[in-house]
Amino acid sequence: MSNAKEAKKKPAQGSQLKTPKAQTGAEAGKARRTEVMGAAFVERAMGSMDGFTRPLQEWLNEHAWGSTWLRDGLDLKTRSLCTCSMLAALGRSTELKGHVRGAINNGASVVEIREVLLHSAIYAGAPAASEAFRAAKEVLAEMGVELPE
Questions:
Q1: Is 104 in a helix, a strand, or coil?
Q2: Is 111 in contact with 148 (CB distance < 8 Å)?
Q3: Which residue, of 37, 52, 60, 143, has the greatest Cβ tally within 10 A?
Q4: Which fold has domain 72-144?
Q5: What is the mean pLDDT of the chain?
Q6: What is the predicted pLDDT for the residue at 1?
Q7: What global pTM score does this model have?
């Protein structure tokens, strides 16, 4: 291959390619995080940053919320329900509470959240599902969301 053809395929050393990650970045991720989780949630997370936790919050904005939550392929409601399921399976009730709120913000119904948590019991176990139900019910009550009979 000639040097001219190689030069067209490779960026010059030191140049930056525009990748989806570079295009979305931390600011777009923070905006998506705010859209899903709510401004108060993000303000608390960002407002409590210090020299120790700042790198984690920046990483979350860029990678979790930027490159992952901004991808095409799943709508926000489906992403939220998947996230609730995974957090239930892992027994991460603190994070689950935020994502139950996010699922409601993204259009999920209480019945859909309930069914995702119930479905997780089969694959993650009853103790994890029980904890997930407790956490979800607490958040739904705080939000004033009517529960089904």
A1: helix
A2: yes
A3: 37
A4: AhpD-like (1.20.1290)
A5: 86
A6: 45
A7: 0.76
Query: What pLDDT does residue 102 have?
Result: 96
Higher-confidence position of 16 and 140? 140
Tell me the Ramachandran region of residue 117: left when phi exceeds 0, alpha when psi lies from -120 to 50, beta otherwise. Answer: alpha
Q: What is the largest CA-CA distance in the chain?
A: 72
Residues 6+ apart with CB under 8 A from 116: 81, 84, 85, 88
Structural domain boundaries in the chain: 24-71, 72-144
Q: Which two tokens stand for residue 92?
A: 């991460």
29: CB partners within 8 A, 6+ apart = 60, 61, 62, 63, 64, 65, 66, 67, 69, 70
Burial 41-72 (b: 16+ CB within 10 A, else e): bbeebbeeeeeeeeeebeebbbeebbbebbee
- Closest residue by Cα to residue 60 from 30, 89, 103: 30
As a whole-number percent, the residues of the chain with pLDDT over 70 amount to 84
